[in-house]
From TrEMBL:
GO terms for molecular function: oxidoreductase activity. InterPro entries: Flavoprotein-like_sf (IPR029039), FMN_Rdtase-like_dom (IPR005025), NAD(P)H-dep_FMN_reductase (IPR051814). It comes from Paenibacillus lutrae. Keywords: Flavoprotein, FMN, Oxidoreductase. Residues 1-144 form the NADPH-dependent FMN reductase-like domain. Gene3D superfamilies: 3.40.50.360. It comes from the Bacteria. This is FMN reductase.
Length: 188
């Protein structure tokens, strides 16, 4: 199983802190999985101009190819101006419409206040559904008060991140079995 952690911001530290913890859980629970971190703060990205993702070069091509090869993607994003960050939206714009077909996507969000929880429901989930992702139904919402000194201090958040990783892996396995059963129906 190929799991990609996509830290969807080029500013701040909370999303990366939560991503590091989430991928640590994944590495511990699924030692045979190939786990890759993409922190958008560490890459030089080109803005989408409508080309096929394979026509880009450098970091842009590397990131899009890693995402296209993944079985599961754990997206961590902050809320900026009640929306997703531009660098994350650019990733979606770089990829083809069916980029997440047969991929499971789990989500966690870092935000300053609980008032921004609808961003996932009204913006992020519709984009992922349009791109054909199998979305893990329960996402993890992490508020400012859940962090202290660049660490998550809320045990409930830590438990929910662990559950997000487990649910993501279970859905990858379930959808793989469904595809195998469907493929077995064909005689060729």
């Amino acid at each position: 199983m190929k799991i990609v952690g996509l830290s969807g911001s080029n500013a701040g530290s909370k999303t990366r802190t939560a991503m590091d913890h989430t991928l640590q859980i994944a590495r511990k629970k699924y030692p045979d999985a190939e786990i890759t971190l993409i922190d958008l703060a560490e890459y030089e990205m080109t803005f989408s101009d409508g080309r096929n993702y394979t026509d880009y070069e450098g970091d842009t091509r590397t990131i899009t190819e890693i995402l296209m090869a993944a079985d599961a993607i754990l997206i961590g994003t902050p809320v900026f101006q009640a929306s997703i960050p531009a660098v994350l939206k650019n990733i979606f714009d770089l990829l083809p419409v069916n980029a997440f077909r047969d991929k499971v996507v789990g989500i966690f969000v870092t935000a300053g206040t609980a008032k921004h929880y609808l961003m996932v429901e009204m913006q992020l989930k519709p984009i992922l559904a349009y791109m054909k992702a199998h979305i893990v139904p329960a996402y993890v919402f992490i508020e400012e008060k859940d962090f202290q000194r660049k660490a998550i201090v809320n045990d409930d958040v830590l438990f929910r991140l662990e559950r997000l990783v487990e649910d993501t892996a279970l859905l990858v396995d379930a959808y793989a079995k469904i595809r195998q059963a469907k493929d077995a129906e064909y005689d060729f």
